[in-house]
Amino acid sequence: MIELFIGCSLLLGDGVLTEQSIDDYFLCNHLQDVKQWYGLTNQYFGDETLFALAVMSCESDGREKATGYNTDGSMDQGLFQFNNRTEKWLEKDIYNRELDMYDAETNIKAARWLSYYDGWHHWNSSKHCWGRYDTFSR
User: Fold this and answer.
1) What digits encode the pLDDT tens for the residues 14-29?
2) Which of 8, 70, 90, 108 is deepest in the core (most CB within 10 A)?
3) Domains in the chain, please, with CATH?
4) Distance separating alpha carbons of residues 87 and 26, to the nearest angstrom
5) What's the N-to-C CA distance of the chain in angstroms?
């Protein structure tokens, strides 16, 4: 994993650009802002860790206190930008307790549960960013 974070430009080093080398380069750059969350994300996502980190990067740039305000009056919170309406549903019907989506582990665990049981479509608003790495949402 460490190799992925060392010099993304090395992926393009030989000067021969292929679709794969370009994808690897973009993924490497996306992961730079979320590399601090690798260990915790890997704990919950396992084989899907790199993809989850790409989604996280697109959603919050790795900022656990990120907040997004939507035109419908709702807001998105934390690393995976959970909508407060989704959070309320998770609190009431799944976890049976209040959740703090600004807590990194809570946010990552909830993202794992939601992506595992209901897919990655909850993050489609940022799919223009992470879609090139999509192998898990089909």
Assistant:
1) 556 566 666 666 667 6
2) 108
3) 17-133 (1.10.530.10)
4) 30
5) 25
